[in-house]
Amino acid sequence: MAAESYQQSSATVQLEAGKNFIHTDVLPKPEDTILDLGCGTGELSAYLAELVGPREGNSNQFEGMGSEKFDIIFSNFVLHWIPEKSEAFRNMLNSLKPGGKVAIQYVDALPPLLVSSLEILNPETHEQLKNKLHLVKRDDVDLICTTAGFTVVRSYYARKTVNVYPSVESLLQWLVSTSQGVFDLQLVTQERIKLLLQKFGNPPFDFTANAFDCKLVAVKPKSSQTL
Ligand SMILES: C[S@@+](CC[C@H](N)C(=O)[O-])C[C@H]1O[C@@H](n2cnc3c(N)ncnc32)[C@H](O)[C@@H]1O
């Protein structure tokens, strides 16, 4: 099979993980009004729309914030970019109907093989990326969520299943898009690629080892007072 035909980008990895999460945990009903918080390119929003019909709001601007109009707030790989998580959870609570739920997929640590590849290929930007990401451990996210007024229904780790890069190019492409522009291709010299191959061997690069996603489903109590 030609490399391109099964090449993965950050977008496809996240899209597949997002669809999987929708069918295991989000479980939207046709009549639900859903906000896709931090929708990015909107492909998952479109997928959700196919499942639930016309929807209000697929905005990463929190359109409808505080309106108590959503049945579900879905968010796929966004929470770890948000510095003020308490505020975000309060805003989400205030935007949901009583009895509505949040379904959030995020990471609370970078996979070790990703960290190694960043150190080899882009040591200059590694610190910047760490500062841009706001990784908070799952237990603490649960606490922030509960403190905001939610009742946690499910919170668990799931092993990443889709995280294999068939070529150096596909890995670089993924690092660029997954780092929100911090990873700098100009810094990737042939020397560094050689070091990468020494460490990981020839592609495909399998980054699934010790790589976990966090999944959180929490409901707004029916009698909740919005803050
Ligand atoms: C990794 S992308 C995920 C996109 C999409 N949810 C998906 O699964 O394809 C992260 C997204 O989070 C958004 N984002 C970052 N910080 C945010 C914030 N404070 N509030 C809302 N969205 C944010 C970015 O604009 C970007 O679209």
TrEMBL record:
Pfam families: Methyltransf_23. InterPro entries: SAM-dependent_MTases_sf. Keywords: Methyltransferase, Transferase. The keyword Methyltransferase applies. One of its GO terms (biological process) is methylation. CDD domains: AdoMet_MTases. One of its GO terms (molecular function) is methyltransferase activity. This is Trans-aconitate 2-methyltransferase. The lineage of its organism: Eukaryota, Metazoa, Cnidaria, Anthozoa, Hexacorallia. The gene is tam.
